[in-house]
């Protein structure tokens, strides 16, 4: 049984919280602070209970290298505004200076660590990296629902170093919602799936093939399914290793009489970074030199009608 935040005695404790601050930033300005805002109740609960808080998150894909474009400095500024208190910030998440800042925290203080993915050890779930991260807290709390499926150090490896560990208020809310929906699902049950990787969601898909009536497939994973069906997807991102699995899912859905619904059109471009051409095409007419970026308006209408 996973413990929840309010089951711990937080007074005079350092609480290490895995949050999801993977937010859009342009020219050093946070463009959408919703994820930061969602973390505030858990942080405030800790502070009001007499704890100090250390926050860790990833941002983007810096591939294990320091890249100012993916720094969490501007996130700290927004966080400080939300909490109405100054935030301590460390430019590294595991060096001696950052750990010393954490050890010196007083109750009511907040310490934000720099991007976890500036170290390759995060995505590699490295033991040494996990051990160093764990030095920041006496209690570990995971409140990053959107990244909790990843076998990364801040989700998995670090927990081996904690006796006291559990989930935050945001995580608890999401888990309770899903438990309620899947324990006694009302029929007809329609599921909307997105994201790029089938591999990240294979267990969920297997469950949905038993419980759902209709599954809408959006996001990047749609291209893997379309390629599995023999369609040309141009330069769109495809999870090549999962094409055979996609075929099996299609067959199992047919056997279970689960309707799989795929996009009927896509917004495509010749480049993500510097597009010279953007247009909307049918699902079976993606040009060889183009890549799918998002679903088109006809797909939005179709999915909306089903939902």
Write the layout of secondary structure elements.
Elements: E1 3-4, E2 14-18, E3 25-26, E4 29-30, H1 34-48, E5 52-56, H2 73-83, E6 88-90, H3 96-103, E7 110-113, H4 120-124, H5 127-134, E8 139-142, E9 165-167, H6 169-183, E10 190-193, H7 202-211, E11 214-217, H8 221-228, H9 243-255, E12 259-261, E13 265-269, E14 278-282, E15 291-295, H10 297-306
Parallel strand pairs: 1-9, 2-5, 2-8, 5-7, 6-7, 8-9, 10-11, 11-12
Antiparallel strand pairs: 3-4, 13-14, 13-15
Descriptive account of the structure:
The chain is of the alpha/beta class and 307 residues long. It is built from 10 helices and 15 strands. The chain has helices at 34-48, 73-83, 96-103, 120-124, 127-134, 169-183, 202-211, 221-228, 243-255, 297-306, and strands spanning 3-4, 14-18, 25-26, 29-30, 52-56, 88-90, 110-113, 139-142, 165-167, 190-193, 214-217, 259-261, 265-269, 278-282, 291-295. Helix 1 packs across helix 2 and helix 8 packs across helix 9. 34% of the residues are buried. The mean pLDDT is 93.
